[in-house]
Each structure stands twice: as C-alpha cells, then as structure tokens.
Amino acid sequence: MQHINDKGVDLCKKGCPLEKTLKDGKIRDTEIYLHHKNGHRVPVSVRSSAIRNDKKEIIGAVEIFCDNSKRINIIKEIESLKKEVFIDQLTQVGNRKFAEMNLSIIVQLWFFMA
C-alpha cells in the first residue's frame, strides 16, 4: 500500500511517520493519501504510536488509519457556502458582510499591534 502526502511524495520512501516513531518514540498524527486499487486517492488520518517494553525501550510501533473522505467533503462544502455568503454572485466581489468581517479583523490586529 502506497502512502503519499498532499504533494505526492511517497512517504514509504521518504518521510515515513512510522519509521520516525520507531526512532524517537513520539506519537505522530499525519494526513496522508492512500492509492485505491482503482487509481484514485483516499484521504486518511494516520496515528503512529510506539510500543514499549517494561524497560521503556521501543520494541515496535502501531499505526491507526481513519478514512477522512467525509471530513474533506464537509470542508469543501463549508468553503462553498462561505463563498455564497460573502461573495456577490453577479460581480464576484466581496459583499458588505465580507467587508465588515475583514474590517473587524484588521481593527483587532491594529489594536493588538499598537
């Protein structure tokens, strides 16, 4: 099974989270893609965790995979809805809500920086 990141890098060859966990024992949460047998990519969350013996030595590791397809689709839907709420459909320019929201953020940053 091939694990790749969002840039298409094969993590089995470079940057394997499981390999890193085996070396340092740290828990890692990684967003990756698996190649489906039909050729498309499947978004997956992977948690790598070390297994230790009584002496606290690393003797192995385990990976837990969770399908992220639904979460990715929800994020895309939210982005689409934000566009509908903040962008004028005719002009494709930010509307009043968009301006007020951004102005509020700018004012907060200005007071924070001052």
Architecture overview:
The chain has 114 residues and is of the alpha+beta class. The protein has two domains: 3-67, 2-Layer Sandwich (Beta-Lactamase), CATH 3.30.450; 72-113, no CATH class. Helices cover 39% and strands 28% of the residues. It has helices at 17-24, 69-86, 96-113, and strands at residues 3-4, 28-35, 41-52, 58-67. A hairpin with a 5-residue loop joins strand 3 (41-52) and strand 4 (58-67). The model has no long low-confidence stretch (mean pLDDT 87).
Outline of the structure:
By secondary structure, the chain is α+β, with helices and mostly antiparallel strands. The chain has three helices and four strands, in the order βαβββαα.
- State the end-to-end distance: 53 Å
Sequence stretches where pLDDT stays below 50 over 5 or more residues: none
Class from secondary-structure proportions? alpha+beta
Q: Mean of residue pLDDT? A: 87
The CATH C-level name of the largest domain is: Alpha Beta
What's the total helix number? Answer: 3
Question: Order of helices and strands, N to C?
Answer: EHEEEHH
Give the biggest sheet.
4 strands, antiparallel
Quick one: how many beta strands? 4
CATH level-4 homologous superfamily of the largest domain: PAS domain
- Judging by the overall fold, what is the CATH architecture of the largest domain? 2-Layer Sandwich
Question: What topology does this entry show?
Answer:
Blueprint: E1 3-4, H1 17-24, E2 28-35, E3 41-52, E4 58-67, H2 69-86, H3 96-113
Antiparallel strand pairs: 1-2, 2-3, 3-4
Task: Describe the structure using short key phrases.
4-stranded antiparallel sheet, elongated, 28% strand, Beta-Lactamase, alpha+beta, 114 residues, 2 domains, 3 helices
